[in-house]
Fold this sequence. Notes:
single chain; mainly alpha; two-stranded antiparallel ribbon; 11 helices; 62% helix
Amino acid sequence: MTAYPAWTPAPRPGIVPLHPLGFGTILGKSFSALRQNPRVLLGFALCVQAGAYLLVIFATGGVAIASFSRLDTVPSGSEEFDAILAGSIAITVITGLVLGLASGALGVIVQGVVVSEVAAAVIAEKLTLGQIWQRLRPVAWRLIGYAALVLGAVLLVIAVVGGVVVGLGFVVLPLAIVLGVLLVLGSIPLSLWLSTKLLLVPAAIILEGAGIRAAIARSWRLTRGRFWSTFGILVIISMTFSVVAQVVSIPLSFLSSGLSTIVSPTGDPEPAAIVAVIVSAVLTQALTILVQCVALIVQSTAAALVYVDCRMRHEGLDLDLQTYVERRDAGATDLADPYREHIGRTIAPRPAPGGPYYPGAYPAPGGYPPPGAYAPGGYPTPYGASAPSPYGAPGYAAPPVPGTPAPGTPTPGPDTAASPPRWTAPGETS
Length: 430
């Protein structure tokens, strides 16, 4: 008996198809990825961001109250009053700065969790928060170090440029003002360009285990040729959440005004002020935290998808992902991480999205010309030669009508035409 191979199901599709992605696919999936694992993505991000925000507010406010309350124990205008005031301001600012940096570090961890989850969702895997943390823990300090490096570089540039402008202002004030305006305007495209070119640094650190310097080089190289599409995705996402923030704030402002009028119809400032503080501070900040969490998740998802798309185009990552999915669904175990396979591999240019696509998008096998290269009068063969077409024209001609000679068959002339047989009646001799 013939033994037939066991049937295996087709690879399960993830959140995106395993071939180079188009602009609309990346943008759409950046918003819809929340449905893949909302408990890990939105739940974790919301808890971390809300906890960090409340910690900064309450801790900074507590330090400010404790330090500034000492001013009541000394007479106003004395040297002790001025010293306590300066010290209180310094302590409050330092506390807010340190806690703000800690909050930013937590935001970087949230970004790492989102990138890890999206990378798993691409190959149809759903990870728990513990599994994601096991992947993220070895590179967590690199992410925090990169964020600190970026922040330090920004602060250094601001300090140097600001010092130059202020120093110039003491000499030539109009020139300092013009220079300051030009520097501010010039920093906008520069920051947009750098943020786009360095967008994939966290993904390279998390998924490839690269160091900070190597991840910067990887992001710079992978975004080559994909700058404008990546820039467009970032701009659209930023504009979308800016509009959402405005839409959220406008109804709250009307609600605050309406409640103030209802609670204090005579214009008494005290209850109106209480209502305004409660509504604008509590509700607005709560919705702001929610919008910021969703924006962080969407931006991190977009960065992960752009990373996957760039590696598909430059290094053929889709082939590694397809192989991984097929072997996993066939029952193989102990598979290597597909995102760490063939890092830096160079392949032929990939076709544009929407154009003709072939498995792997590599050039046609040897002997077969690319589509559209069929020569008139012949068709391709596996050996690279062009066999003659039976009908002498490109494409396929209609089959001949039954009873008619095939193309190329000589037509018998009058000399060679066969005479029809002569009919003879029964019993008659010819």
